């Protein structure tokens, strides 16, 4: 199924969220969040897309590979670590929601506006991942 063709208004709504996050989020951080969520969700299409975007932006292979497992604190700065931890928590949404310590750390290193933008970015990539996986988009 090609949702871009069969459900144009719904697809356009998600594109609107995507455009918003691209305007509001630092590009590299946005792509790191997208790659991490896509890896957690197993969306091959999105993994390929965001890997290519990060490569084009000059991201190191070591840092991209590190997103596949437990994220090492030695490779990422505190904002990136907080964003990636929040990405994990929002993507997995365990019972009880986002743990307070994860939220508090993100709130410590991001302004309220930045934190809201980050939540929207994480939610948006999760929508893309679910659409891609459900419709079996080919990487």
UniProtKB/TrEMBL annotation:
Residues 22-88 form the Carboxymuconolactone decarboxylase-like domain. InterPro entries: AhpD-like, AhpD_core, CMD-like. GO terms for molecular function: peroxiredoxin activity. Coiled coil: none annotated. This is Carboxymuconolactone decarboxylase family protein. It comes from Kocuria subflava. The lineage of its organism: Bacteria, Bacillati, Actinomycetota, Actinomycetes, Micrococcales.
């Amino acid at each position: 199924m090609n949702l871009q063709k069969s459900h144009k208004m719904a697809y356009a709504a998600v594109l609107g969220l995507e455009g918003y996050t691209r305007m509001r989020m630092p590009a590299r951080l946005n792509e790191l969040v997208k790659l991490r969520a896509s890896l957690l969700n197993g969306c091959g299409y999105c993994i390929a897309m965001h890997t290519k975007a990060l490569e084009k932006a000059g991201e190191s292979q070591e840092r991209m590979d590190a997103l596949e497992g437990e994220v090492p604190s030695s490779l990422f700065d505190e904002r990136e670590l907080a964003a990636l931890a929040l990405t994990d928590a929002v993507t997995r949404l365990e019972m009880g929601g986002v743990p307070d310590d994860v939220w508090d750390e993100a709130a410590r290193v991001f302004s309220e506006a930045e934190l809201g933008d980050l939540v929207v970015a994480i939610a948006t990539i999760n929508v893309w991942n679910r659409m891609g996986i459900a419709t079996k988009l080919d990487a």
